[in-house]
Design a protein that fits this description.
This protein is mainly alpha-helical and 252 residues long. Helices cover 77% and strands 0% of the residues. It is found in: Cell membrane; Membrane. Pfam families: ABC2_membrane.
Length: 252
Amino acid sequence: MTTYLFSDSAVLTGRTLRHVTRSLDTIITTAIMPIALMLMFVYVFGGAIDTGPVPYIDYMLPGILLITIASGISYTAFRLFMDLKSGIFERFQSMPIARSGVLWAHVLTSLAANTISLVIVLGVALLMGFRSSAGVLAWLAVGGILLLFTLALTWIAVIPGLSATSVEGAGAFSYPLVFLPFVSSAFVPTETMPGPVRWFAENQPVTPIVNTLRDLFAGRPADDLGIALAWCGGLLVVAYVFAMLAYRRKIA
């Protein structure tokens, strides 16, 4: 059964990847908003924000990368919703393939598409002056955390993709996820925030993830690494369970 799942998922992933490569504008669109935010924050607001000796582009890049992922996963929900409406799921159910293969195809496609968007945003950041003293292991850790975060948000995207009643509803869930980094340590130190906002910022998942990425980029010990991994892993497990429940209800 596991062998069938891997082989069927690979074939179905090839199908969804072809859809993405035929509409590369979705990847470009995903990268445009984070790049625009990066340009605005660095060149308009950056001079008014005190981050000490750390260049502002270095300080805020981790938050921009998370926004890139949050923007990209909305297309996963959209593609899944469109597959449901087209009746392709019913056709797949009549074929001798692993039932969860179609979900994993969308998840793996999301990982690939978001990786391309992240590389584009990181390339623009380098042109804007971003520099990192991270070693190879630190860069691998950065990649691993971003991959785990993408995987967690992608499984969250599967839920509205399966349960939404309109295209707008399938993608609207991503708006709070895009907004979340703004109420975190991504763009300003949490110490500058008023009490209740600061409490929320310091106790939501984005802040430890941003702090960990920032430390890894700077070549420092990542004190929040355990908390960041716990948030990513916890979100992934919960989202996966609810996504599979939604899928079983949909195909029942």
